Structures are given as C-alpha cells and as structure tokens.
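Box 3.1 A note on notation
Throughout this textbook, protein chains are presented in two layers. The first layer is the amino acid sequence; the second is a token string describing backbone geometry. Keep the layers aligned when reading.
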Amino acid sequence: MGNSSLILVHGWGTSRMGPARLLVRMARRTALHGMAALNFDLPGRGESEGTYASADIDTMIDSVLLAGDWLRARGISRILLTGLCSGANIVLAAAALSPRNIAGVLAMSALPYQEARTGSMRLRRSLWQLAGYMKKACRFSTWRRLLKGEISVGGVGKAISARDEAVADGRNLKLSSRDIPAALAAYDGKMVFVWGEKDPEAGASGKYFQKLVGGGKNPAEIYTVAGANHNYYGLSAQADVFRALDAFVSGTGAGSARL
C-alpha cells in the first residue's frame, strides 16, 4: 500500500489529536499497513493559521481537497479519508465533490448536514446531555469543582441547549454554499459509517445517511461500536474503531450492523 494515503480530519472545535488522541493513534495504526497518514489542524484550529470564526465548512472542505492535491503531487495515487463528528461530514463532502480523486471514506459519528437538522434531533441531544449532567450533579466532586471555578456554567448551558450551529457575522458557518447531499448521493466510492452504540444521535443519523446514499452503486457499510459514545472513549471502544480502520484501509470491509 505504499502508493496509498489516509487523510484524517478532526471535529469542529477540536484539533488534529482527536478525543483521547484517537486520531493520532489511528494515524499510527495506518502506518502499520504501509500507508502514509496525513493528520493536520483545520483552518483556525490548533496550530493552523486563521481565526475560529473565519473558518466555515466550505473552507474546511477545500483544505482537505488541497491536502489531497499535495499528496498526489508527491506520487500518491490512492487517497482515503476519515473524519470524526463534523470532520466526518467534511470528508464525506470532500469525497463527493472530488469523486475521481478520493477512493473511499470512513465517517465516524457523522451527523445530518445542517439543512436536515430537525427540532426532534436537537431535543433528543438536549435530553441526553441533561441526563448526563443530572448524574454529575449528584456527585460531591462536581460541586467541589464548581466552587473552585473549574466548571464553565456557560459551557454546560450551551451543551444542554444542544445548539449545533456555529454563527459568526450573522451566518451559520456549518451551512455550505454547495449542495453536498446531492453530490454525496451520487458518490460511488467506498463508504463506511461508524457510530457508537450509546451516541444519542446515532439512530437518526444512521437513517439519514442510509436514505441519502442507499441508492448508490456501492452500498455503504455501517459499523456500530458496542457500548461506545460519540467520541469512542475507552480502550474497548477504540479497539473496535481500529478494527474498522484495518478493514477499511485493507479493503476487506468493516462489517455491518443494524442501527
């Protein structure tokens, strides 16, 4: 696989490390297959130039496409993409908009695109967040951290509100100027979707993407990680992600499970 490479893309507000260094570990795992792995910070994130508010989804998609151009200029002919959360939406869009250049996508915890986000999805996410914080509120350690100023009350409120928009200068940065769903429906490269079993939005997201890409030439594979949340915390969850990655980069198929 010396002529192949995997580009890894992080979520909206994070960096190239990924939660619990998941993307770093995936990059190293990819190298064991004899493949190059390219892991970088999106514009306005981590160590990349730009500001948080200046980077919208189209800028991020273009950055991934430029990364693919950079690899092809260095002799890489087979390019695969993987991303987590918003990063999954970005790599799916990049593949759909450049189908001849991207051989396949491994999308982890992908969410419906902004134009398809519904009130019921937001409510489900809000109730799940509220339940989690209610459990934490019953712990003495939580109140101790609160009194020490170690907990952002505003951050908790934002999480419970489940607002998924990123607004700057009156516009939603997560809303693309392109028709990504239409392009993705026509994409005939390899697609593997991974969701955590305990991700509260996995069910609705899975149905959304199954409907969107179900009519393609290559049916998408779906892999559910038992007991995992949105970010796949824990050694067992990450081990399952690595198995899906191994199958994806080797072309043997990641397996499927019904959501």
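The chain has two domains: 4-117+178-250, 119-161. DSSP finds nine helices and eight strands in the chain.
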